[in-house]
Inverse folding.
């Protein structure tokens, strides 16, 4: 039991921090970049909603309620990152104010990202007698790694904006544009 907990916590943690699967890091970066440490409650809320969406799609897929073509999902993942980056650029002055829209988008994007991992996850838990416990353990590992990334991004944002004096607008647009530039080739190659 303890070994299983450790295994799935580590699997969730490594899923986010896998350098070969850096799409998760890119998404969390553009999701978090508009905020500072003083906004940590809002950021934790967004990240947790993303985890809920990710876990929901794993549950739906694991229990064969939803099936979707993995190549479509792999194409949609960088699109979610691009949309979030564009949202930052276009709506920079409204970020954090339209809570419902941001939460719904984040939830939906969590579902998309979770579907991208669902085939591999189903393969891993295929021999398990219980499927719900590994799903929840994985989600806890996922959430832990995401909070770690968010802390790094919040630290960088706070340093850039409060210590280096970079305006919020310049900081958010610059980082969001860089991330957008990184995901365009991903979108093209997966099309």
């Amino acid at each position: 039991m303890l070994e299983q907990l450790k295994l799935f916590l580590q699997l969730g943690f490594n899923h986010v921090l896998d350098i070969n699967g850096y799409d998760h890091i890119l998404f969390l970066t553009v999701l978090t970049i508009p905020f500072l440490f003083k906004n940590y409650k809002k950021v934790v809320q967004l990240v947790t909603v993303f985890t809920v969406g990710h876990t929901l799609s794993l549950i739906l897929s694991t229990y064969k309620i939803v099936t979707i073509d993995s190549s479509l999902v792999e194409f949609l993942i960088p699109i979610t990152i691009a949309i979030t980056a564009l949202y930052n650029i276009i709506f920079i002055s409204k970020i954090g104010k339209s809570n419902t829209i941001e939460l719904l988008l984040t939830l939906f994007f969590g579902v998309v990202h979770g579907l991208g991992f669902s085939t591999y996850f189903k393969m891993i838990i295929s021999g398990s007698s219980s499927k719900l416990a590994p799903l929840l353990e994985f989600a806890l590992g996922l959430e832990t790694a995401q909070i770690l990334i968010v802390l790094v991004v919040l630290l960088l944002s706070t340093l850039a904006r409060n210590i280096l004096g970079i305006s919020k607008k310049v900081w958010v647009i610059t980082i969001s544009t860089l991330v957008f530039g990184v995901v365009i080739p991903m979108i093209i190659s997966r099309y």
User: Anything to note?
Assistant: Residues 132-163 form the longest helix (32 residues). Residues 2-190 form one domain.
